[in-house]
């Protein structure tokens, strides 16, 4: 399919989605988010794709929401749009999403980054939730995911001041997985996505879902969920192939069954 505000490609078993509104720093409007989620769902249903890589450009991953869409809209109009429903669909993508972020990662861009399962950030990344400066607040998970990632006090400081943090500080707080030179950001993320895409597909997807359950469930309930998921994977053909390959000292040939 063709899109106006994103580009889509595949590299081996990795689906690559690039935000493509460079003149306005990849500002997120409703059409872009709808295109993005549609492309994610297409890759999620494609058995040849094992991981999804999401990126922008060197100036900006995404500098925030497109204010032109909201400036003159009433609260009722924005509620009727139900614009966050599409973000909920993004959270149901079963395959791992790897983010490669550089430049501005602000507002909705930060929320989009936090929807990724793994994030490679370049040294130029500037990350924050500056909505307070516009008299509003995050609405796509910024208060919830940021607090879980960096802790209550740091999240409160960032959200109430609108101050951004550097890629290095984001790494220190666990908001990103690693920081690399800007010229290596995309290639490092793609290399990681390819490595994950070669793993057993069912195990990858079940692990992703189980890890996210850790945010929602008390410890014992999470342990029960993990054990049931473990037993489920024991019934897969990939479990048999993986263990047989280990015993035969060869690389496994996973099929997703």
Automatic annotation (TrEMBL):
Pfam family, any one: ECH_1
GO biological process: fatty acid beta-oxidation
Domain of life the protein comes from: Bacteria
One Gene Ontology molecular-function label: enoyl-CoA hydratase activity
UniProt EC number: 4.2.1.17
Enzyme class: lyase
Xref: PROSITE patterns: ENOYL_COA_HYDRATASE
The keyword ATP-binding is annotated on this UniProt entry: no
Catalyzed chemical reaction(s): a 4-saturated-(3S)-3-hydroxyacyl-CoA = a (3E)-enoyl-CoA + H2O; a (3S)-3-hydroxyacyl-CoA = a (2E)-enoyl-CoA + H2O
Function comment: Could possibly oxidize fatty acids using specific components.
Family named by the database record: Belongs to the enoyl-CoA hydratase/isomerase family.
PANTHER family, per the entry: ENOYL-COA HYDRATASE, MITOCHONDRIAL, ENOYL-COA HYDRATASE-RELATED
Protein name listed in UniProt: Probable enoyl-CoA hydratase echA8
Organism the protein comes from: Brevibacillus reuszeri
